[in-house]
Amino acid sequence: MQPWSPSVENDLRHLLNEWDPIGVADEVPDEYDCMLAPMLQRLRGGADETQIGTFLRNEVEQHFGLDPLGARPEAMASRVIAWWTALEVAHGNSA
């Protein structure tokens, strides 16, 4: 399990801003910070790609009020899980 650290949060923030499902990350770089703690909690709890995808789909649809299809939350979930797995491996932990 990774410690809660600014670098982990910043890395996840960067991923979310690259994804940018509502298209405002250039003007509002903290727009997706509301997803940081819940997503890190899920990842630390062992959430898989499907669970992260469901979380992202719900956020896009319910929180931001958008059609999640165009946001491709499942593709983003795959990126998040790949990042998390690499982080775990780099720190000598299992994902």
TrEMBL record:
SUPFAM superfamilies xref list: YugE-like
Cross-referenced InterPro entries: Apc36109-like_dom_sf (IPR023162)
Protein name, UniProt field: DUF1871 family protein
